[in-house]
Write a structure and sequence with these properties.
Oligomer: single chain
Radius of gyration: 14 Å
Structural class: alpha+beta
Length: 136
């Protein structure tokens, strides 16, 4: 099982989604940005590092959400989502093809990676996410 962190980044009542550029399995699929936790790194350190590396953004981690375990044909992952906001920077796509700021309903329409779809289904009806959308 590989542990992967992802950021659910809120801004002005929208959530950030990014599109893969080069990935052997998830080519052109959409996701919440993030990546693998490195040895001796905390989950929060990993998400802050990953977002800086991938998007050149400084983020603030607000909350860790419930993990999602998902089995892809090639590997099993534990997706660890964090609710985040941007504290500095403008998006620079370093490892992605595209990005979009979307409302919750629009996320359901994207061609998302399966684990991210599962995550959206899990939090899609949660009042907490609606509260974050209303606060940003």
């Amino acid at each position: 099982m590989i542990e992967v962190v992802c950021a659910i980044i809120f801004k002005e009542n929208k959530i950030l989604a990014t599109q893969h550029k080069r990935h052997p399995v998830h080519q052109s699929k959409w996701e919440f940005p993030g990546g693998k936790i490195e040895p001796a790194e905390s989950k929060q350190e990993a998400i802050i590092r990953e977002i800086k590396e991938e998007l050149d953004l400084e983020i603030s981690v607000l909350e860790e959400l419930q993990t999602i375990d998902h089995s892809y044909p090639h590997q099993k992952i534990r997706l660890i989502p964090f609710v985040c906001t941007i504290i500095d920077g403008e998006i620079v796509l370093k490892q992605h093809r595209n990005y979009q700021w979307l409302d919750l309903e629009q996320l359901f329409e994207l061609d998302l990676c399966e684990a991210d779809k599962e995550l959206i289904r899990h939090f899609g009806n949660r009042k907490k996410i609606q509260l974050y959308l209303g606060k940003t």
